[in-house]
């Protein structure tokens, strides 16, 4: 029996790319959360879930949280994918609190990965959000712009892709460690 399953929800492809790379690296099965029933992964002790990060919300995370009893006793490794890197513990804690009920939080190990952006491929809502953000950032003085601000302004003008298979290494290492521990039991 496999110890790890990879499940993802992807709007524009970056999360799916990471999920497929992760499944390949681990020899795990990979499932699109929108197309698989949660009972398919019922017997797998470790679930790696990937979703895009939009305003602090993890895309499709309801796959895990809608019926948390289905995932009781499992280890959940969650990776988010977004244009802005999440680098501090406070931001990670806020994401965890926003997306998971208190009873599930101890089960979750959270990782963040950089994605891609092609404004021409965004849906209407995301295009409007990017236009608004671009407008706010474009009004800032050049010396007030952060590195992330400049990255977003550039991404608005032309597609950018920060996906990197090597960035998965901490996720892979954590999952392999969890797999070894599960096999030892």
Automatic annotation (TrEMBL):
One of its GO terms (molecular function) is menaquinone-dependent protoporphyrinogen oxidase activity. Residues 6-133 form the Flavodoxin domain. It holds the Pfam family Flavodoxin_5. GO terms for biological process: heme biosynthetic process. This is Flavodoxin. The lineage of its organism: Bacteria, Bacillati, Bacillota, Clostridia, Eubacteriales.
């Amino acid at each position: 029996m496999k110890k790890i399953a990879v499940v993802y929800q992807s709007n524009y492809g970056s999360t799916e790319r990471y999920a497929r790379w992760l499944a390949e690296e681990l020899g795990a099965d990979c499932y699109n959360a929108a197309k698989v029933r949660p009972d398919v992964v019922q017997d797998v002790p470790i679930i790696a879930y990937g979703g895009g990060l939009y305003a602090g919300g993890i895309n499709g995370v309801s796959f895990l949280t809608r019926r948390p009893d289905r995932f009781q006793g499992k280890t959940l490794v969650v990776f988010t994918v977004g244009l802005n890197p999440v680098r501090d513990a406070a931001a990670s804690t806020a994401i965890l609190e926003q997306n998971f009920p208190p009873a599930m939080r101890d089960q979750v190990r959270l990782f963040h990965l950089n994605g891609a952006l092609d404004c021409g491929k965004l849906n209407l809502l995301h295009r409007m959000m990017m236009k608004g953000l671009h407008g706010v950032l474009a009004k800032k003085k050049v010396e007030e712009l952060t590195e992330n601000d400049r990255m977003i302004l550039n991404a608005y003008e032309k597609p950018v892709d920060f996906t990197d298979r090597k960035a998965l290494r901490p996720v892979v290492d954590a999952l392999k460690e969890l797999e070894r521990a599960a096999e030892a039991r």
